[in-house]
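User: Predict NAD(P)H-quinone oxidoreductase's structure from this.
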Amino acid sequence: MTLSHTMRAVEISEPGGPEVLKPATHPVPVPGHGQIVIRVAYAGVNRPDALQRAGLYAPPASASPLPGLEASGTVVELGPNVTRWSIGDKVCALLPGGGYAEYVTTHEEHALPVPDGMGVKEAACLPETCFTVWSNVVMRGGLRGGERFLVHGGASGIGTTAIQIARSLGARVFTTAGTDDKARACEALGAERAFNYKTEDWAAEVKAIGGADLILDMVGGAYLPRNIRTLADDGRLVQIAFLQGAKVELNFAELMMRRLTLTGSTLRPQSDAAKARIARQVETHVWPMIAAGHFTPVMDSEFPLDQAAQAHARMESSGHTGKIVLKVGG
Ligand SMILES: NC(=O)c1ccc[n+]([C@@H]2O[C@H](COP(=O)([O-])OP(=O)(O)OC[C@H]3O[C@@H](n4cnc5c(N)ncnc54)[C@H](OP(=O)(O)O)[C@@H]3O)[C@@H](O)[C@H]2O)c1
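Assistant:
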């Protein structure tokens, strides 16, 4: 297949607010060893895209400077040594960047088949959240059935995914959200209790039932000492972002006295091999949850590619529940 040399994309014209996202024309990317080119149908919008746009989360040197960490679409070109995919395959993929465009390259092992029965729109929302949740909650956090799991930001893309995956693993799920409506939506997804963090003392409530065996947190700041207090003995705290800041004063004696584990990770800078390991686990464990009807992405809204700025404004308004997508090729 002969691809055109240029494509529509959305670029970050300068660091700033949503308005710095501007439609632009870019060269179609060329696949390297082990890479595929995807004609993008839909691109998922994630909070790290907004951090990149604001100049706070630089892409790795080898990645496209265009935003976009996940997409779905059709494989249209194969680089040297690609073995898994053929032209025409429908995939969804984790990207090092570049999803806000008509074409994108990624490592072939970071792509997964669009799950049976799922549309490309929903599939675009799977990679970033599934890779992040599985690698942090299960591979790093070691969540097991029967454990008490607390995830903050339950109505976020990450939160709605974590609630469903943890429930499917048989954990008891607790979560926080900024409004009563969002809290009820989280309970409808499988959370045993969702606390409105503006009106309820989630730390006291979870502590009263024995504490959390595992907490997944993206808030940080003042939540760090509260999370530590909320953990059960031998509990684990996995940090995936610091929306309220990364610097706090902590009494580390609690870690020692109660045998707590404090850890965290960020997906994007990890090696291709590490992301491929996560991809294999996601396909082995999460794709069957989708097939069984235990997990489906919660969709908030759709915007055309050239309205990426409006999509970011919606995400930063915190009015959304679940995932926001950009329609690129449809
Ligand atoms: N480490 C990694 O590899 C990785 C990968 C992907 C995402 N992330 C991080 O994970 C987070 C979620 O990402 P996303 O794409 O799902 O974004 P998102 O949908 O915009 O979610 C952000 C969430 O943070 C919640 N929040 C803000 N302040 C809060 C507080 N004080 N207490 C409880 N919740 C609070 C908001 O909830 P309310 O609106 O209810 O307040 C919102 O749901 C982001 O911080 C992102 O940077 C990390």
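The chain has two domains: 6-126+297-327, 130-264.
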